[in-house]
Amino acid sequence: MKLRLLLPLLFSGILFGLFLLIPVEWFTSLSKHENIKQESTSLDDSVLKGIHSQEEMLKSNKYYPVFGSSELEKPDIFHPAHVLNEKKAKLSPYLIGTGGSTDLIHAINIGSQSHNLKGKKIAIIISPQWFTNHGLTNDNFNARLSPIQTDHLFSNESLSPELKNRFAKRLIQFDQLKNNSYLNSVIKSPTHQYDEGTYMNNFEYKIYQKHDALKSILLPAKSPLNNEKAHDLSHLSWEEMRDYASEYGKKHSTNNKFGMNNHYWRQLMSQHKRYNRNYEFNKNSKEFKDLQLLIDTLKESKADPLFIVIPANGKWYDHINVNPAKREAVYQKINETITSNGMKVYDMTDKEYEPYVITDAVHIGWKGWVYIDEQMINHINGKYDESISRQF
């Protein structure tokens, strides 16, 4: 009886031992290039927190990485995952981000792939709601931090010691990393001239590396975007598509005066609570330093990013008494932070009162996606126009 109870434990131990003994190269050699296309819209953890899948994607020269947060997960017939492919864009979108993926999370991810980003066109969606009184919280950071990406960032020779020093100083501000010996050693020697070791030890790194490669071999879960019924919009001009998106939004927001989709409004009303978002839109938020860290990482990577700054739902935020002047101050500072660093930006914040640009309180959709789709394709085609950067 005891032996029967021990057999599963023994079997698991043998499998884990074999896993440890198999060389990393065996896993990576099994990775299939055809998986990349399915991964591109999966929003799977192996994509968001991994190294191998993104590395393969960046080597292919066929994809347009789109970094964002929860808006990427929302099914929408005007989502770039659909429209860019329907419009036969030269590059296919590859989605990287989930709810809570803010500037620092993107900066770590991009820093881990810095050596693969020279000249690469990418899009980064910035949500002004990130710029809160507290900035990125410990819980959100802990849930989204990728140890293997962090390790690759600090070992990446294409990034300067000074930039790595700034990353280390930022990371130790989080509770789970404040006593990290590696990060503290980086801070003590900003010129990086020391025997600092690595962020992860060799054993831990190999486990993560094999796990990352193994997940990339297996087909990712079905994309949440596949829940939306397909529509062929390829025959429409951008103006026609915007008109269609407005009609579509109007039909799907009939139970409220804020232009929110009906389903979201029903959920909102079922909660029966007061809404206090006054902690958002802080002009002195830590998030601005994280944005600058992201920008400087992109500079050293020599990437070609298009920042897309989306608005809030102006009518709703007025309703819950978040002062328009407070929002506008944050919009302006985001714009100035990006443009003063010579970066391309599509600033949509002057559209916060335009119907059907935002589908709920904060998420871009419908007509908003159509605006973005057009500018993404222009960026891919090298047709960036500075006039799309809002003038304050």
From TrEMBL:
**What is the primary gene name for this protein?**
dltD
Query: What keyword terms does UniProt attach to this protein?
Result: Cell membrane, Membrane
Against PANTHER family, the record matches this protein to: PROTEIN DLTD
Q: Does the keyword Membrane apply?
A: yes
Q: By what name is this protein known? A: Protein DltD
Record's family? Belongs to the DltD family.
> Which superkingdom does the taxonomy of this entry point to?
Bacteria
Pfam (any one): DltD
Q: Pathway, per UniProt?
A: Cell wall biogenesis; lipoteichoic acid biosynthesis
Q: Which GO terms describe its biological process?
A: lipoteichoic acid biosynthetic process
